[in-house]
Design goal:
By secondary structure, the chain is α+β, with helices and mostly antiparallel strands. The chain has four helices and eight strands; from the N terminus they run H-H-E-E-E-E-E-E-E-E-H-H. The chain starts with 10 loop residues before the first helix and ends in a 12-residue tail after the last helix.
């Protein structure tokens, strides 16, 4: 039986919760917790070849892809190498969950147009300060995300027969 005192959400809010739940960093949050992010959300449209942010920029927002495609690239000796393709329902710019971080890659729109949900870092940090449980849940998801990336990196290293020095990563 439904609690008559629990908050009800509009269909639009419920749709946003359903979308957020597909994103790694929000998967552990309940509706009530996700609702804290609703006033902080901005919708942005981008076109093909627009840069969302550059490597080494301050990490000022988390980006969630509603529509379109984005590639994440790293600069290697004046060339851009694609490290990941981002599709609908995926997030990027995740290191904004950490304070005082800089971007490690450049994000570029590859579809004709893209719809992004942007959540500013200052708003995320404010939510974290007042809600340690939300912070703990999102940081656990971030740790899992980085752990999965490390596993992929090590697998790639093994498959490349050690043509680069993994030791440099830890120096």
């Amino acid at each position: 039986m439904r609690n008559p005192f629990s908050k009800t959400y509009t269909e639009e809010e419920q749709d946003m919760f359903d979308f957020l739940r597909t994103i790694k960093f929000f998967e552990r949050l309940r509706n009530k917790e996700m609702a804290r992010f609703l006033p902080t959300i901005h919708h942005r449209k981008y076109n093909r070849d627009e840069v969302v942010f550059f490597s080494k920029d301050p990490s000022q927002a988390l980006y969630l892809l509603k529509k379109g495609q984005v590639i994440l690239t790293i600069d290697i000796k004046d060339n851009f190498e694609t490290i990941l393709e981002i599709n609908r329902g995926e997030a990027f710019g995740e290191n904004c969950l950490l304070e005082n971080s800089k971007r490690t890659y450049t994000a570029i729109i590859t579809s004709d147009e893209a719809d992004l949900i942007v959540i500013p870092q200052f708003a995320i940090q404010e939510i974290f300060e007042g809600n340690p449980k939300i912070k703990a849940k999102m940081m656990t998801s971030l740790a899992e995300y980085y752990n999965e990336n490390n596993q992929r990196l090590f697998r790639s290293y093994r498959e490349s027969f050690g043509f680069f020095s993994l030791r440099q990563m830890f120096e």
